[in-house]
Amino acid sequence: MRVAIGSILQETNTFSPQVTRRDDFQIALGADLITTAKQEKTEVYGFLDALDEAGFEAVPLLGGWAVSYGRIVGQDFDGLVADLLTELRRVGEVDAVLLALHGAWAAEGVDSADGYVLTQVRQCVGPDVPIIVSLDMHTNLAQSMWTNANALLAYKTCPHIDTYETGLSAGRLTVAMLRNEVQPQMAIRKLPIVTQAEQMLSDRGVYKQLLDYAQEMQDRHGVLSTSMLLCQPWLDVEELGWAVIVITANDKSLAETLADDLAKYVWSQRHKFVVDVPTVDEALDQAMGIEGGPITLGEGADGTMGGSPGDSSYILQAIIRKKLDHLPTAAVVVDPVAVAQAIDAGVGQTVTLSIGGKLNPQYATPVNITAKVKLISDGEFRYRGKVYNGRLVKMGRAVVLVSNGINLLVTERTGPTTDTAMYKSHGIEPSDMKFVVVKSPLGLWMEYEPISKAVISVDSPGCCRADLTKLPFKRIPRPMFPFDEVEYP
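User: That's the sequence. What structure does it adopt?
Assistant: Structure tokens below.
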């Protein structure tokens, strides 16, 4: 049996002023996709292991990954999809297609880029070839996705540490289908819910409660998979909303009954996702009441993995304003102009720069700092923690500026800031700090909680703001929780 495998992953924030371009993607074709997958051990590696243990041939197509920005430019999107389809046609007849998609990818003029990809792949392989898809649990499920796939399986954890396991499950389901052991029956329920990210941690709180409920359901005889798609909340698209998926072995009635049950339970818990997040002054006052450090401060509204540009210095400005800048502090800001100016000055030189607020002036303002240039780098590092371990991150040229106790990493490009490897690779040791600023509402917990005296999410302006009612949604379905009073559909 020959199974085509491919992957295109990008999470779009429609409120971001930065468009996504093809150059933002790290692309791997053919055999390079297999090499890359084994370095990172994410979904595609799971595909490969499942097919290998069954003795099936894995036929690699295209793999692409990009950090979150705004919608991808139309012609670049068309080009990526065309390249995927070219590879699919080149490899000839296949018995199935396995794809790793994000589920919240949007292009210019296309609200569900993932749905468009699946539509094109279905047209290419015809109606009888199974298409099985792994998804991020932040998927915004569009009808074009479920009408063109035989099975959709999502990660369960957040931060995402089960990407490999999800790929393995998708691969094994594909094997079972091709061996005629099961005919998966999929039931889907969309819900008029969008929720802030701060309560989506899978090891605690309301989301864990939902996961436990769904897992008990999945453990029942005849149930192959349960997925909850919590939806990337910073998408202003027409089909926005949570979804649940139940897949059973050959029993459509059971899938429908359980999907109804899971959807109703999710609906009953929706209010628990709404939480107050402290202001920056409240967060710093709380931090100063804790002896020692580090205190990790989550600048989630400028979350770079959620699509914000990363150019906010909101927390850093508050630290300076409250005269706490003598305390050891690690912070990161995206500003290619400031990077170039610091590089021109050179290591060891003192510079006065206006940093930040250039990419997203609607939400970010610059901070003026006089600092010494401590380090210049290529801005590359690999994840070393539990999430995306081994993935190469390219943040463009970078500099470290030191001013009083502040260690400020300034980069040309945005990138994930949730792994301690980002700071460590630039000579900044987070565990030695009083304050560590991380641009994330969620991912910071996995890597920073074990080394921190406290982790505090901070309310601030930005494309990924916790309070969704303060963002300019215009296209989403209404009524929608939490914007409106909604009766269960």
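The chain has a mean pLDDT of 95.
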